User: What shape does this take?
Amino acid sequence: MVAGIHHITLITRKVQANVDFYVGFLGLRLVKRTGGFEDATQLHLIYGDATGSPGSLVTFLVWEDGSPGRAGLGQVGEISLAIDPMSIGFWLTRALSAGLKPEGPSEEFGEPVLRLKDPDGVIVKLVGTNALQATTPWSSHGIPEEHAIRRIRGATLFTETPEETQAILVDHFHYRPEVVNGAISRLVSEPGDIIDIRDARGFWASAPGTGTVDHVAFRASDDAELQSVRTALQAVNSWPTAMHDRKYFRSLYVREPGRILFELATDAPGMLVDEDEATLGTRLFAPGDSPKLLAELNVILPQFSMPGEPRVIYRDLPFVHRFFTPEEPNGNVFILLHGSGANEVTMLPIAHKIDPNATSLTVRGRALEEGAPRWFRRNGPMSFDQADIVSEAEVFAAFIDGAVQAYGLDPERIVYIGYSNGANLLNAMLSLHPHLIRRAVLLRSMAVLENPPAADLSDAEVLVIAGEKDLYGPYSQPLAERLRNGGAKVELETIPAGHDLDGADVPVIQAWLKRSIKSS
Assistant: This one.
């Protein structure tokens, strides 16, 4: 039987800032990058020591540009990492030099503590202790091995049922009470890591989202221990348990009486099951190791750079946006606008099929309908808020101007590709902001401006693709005629498809791009 913390999993909204903090500042090793096991389209990063040993692992689910959560009742409020007690001064100096705002050093339970906040606002405590040593030390640039983070020190739980929370940890996860200090009861495991249980009755409610801890995982020796703990939990009418194979460990999940999510995870197979020690964390993996899924994940998951590597410096522009940069960019740029209810990721796979070497700038609409993004409000299935179209088109034009300047885009190499509602915004912008969009692909589009202004579209090339089975398909012809009347060079194609994007769109767009390039 083993005991103690296996890993702690949190949620971040900015992958690059997360990597810069946990690898670049704290000096942890990125030991694994994979698609999520619950949702493969969600990037999962795992940090740890040199070999990713249990007890050193801090992992993150990446909800890129997701909504922030709030720590409160029923959540982990703080995490702590163990360092040498003599290293507090080193880390204080390093934090101040990095422009962070550390609190302390102070003393908690007789140990020196430096409190930091990560880019999402999670409280990360560096705790000086000799109770824990590194299993496989990892030192990085600027951090000598003697000052390096050793492993996880512990976590602080916010609960309104402290007695019940403590009981489940003592009875089923091999912790023992150590000391009580005010509202905090400290439990310790045999290896020496700790769980602080804060009596948080009267605290505000928690809210799921970025900047929160998803769960704490404890160590199990093998599958037999997993099953034994599951049986024992079920016998005391605990919250329902669920068992999973996570490739790097097998585990069960349970919510304790205070609603905090716990996991019990086996030490084996471990992080070295699919990479050797020298290359840990350098490859992306897909759940199930599907080559087809891996190829798609390489396109749709948010990209990031390791510290010291070139990266996109994102600017504060009016729309949430993301770049996909291929390994060998050819200078072509696709600006992608999704359909109703989708997001900025949706168009990336088809754009990559059209031109694998094009850079994509994919954008998220700001209007919301039942919580899902779109590009402008509508009053009904065929009735659109005209003032909102004009307003959002103006802001999007400003976004384009800002992106061209901030990211050094060549307007002559940009092709706008919009689908459904995104394509409708583009066709409105051709009239509202002529000369801004030179080449556009409108997929399953219809005219939405009731009284479009007269505009000179003579420098615009437009491909309209309709689906012959699409209920909105008949509206593509009037749209093409309206654009031609403005002087645009328009091609209208119909494919044997419905309203959804289809593989048949790809060769039509590729052929049009070749003709467009030759004529320019």
Remarks:
- The chain has a mean pLDDT of 95.
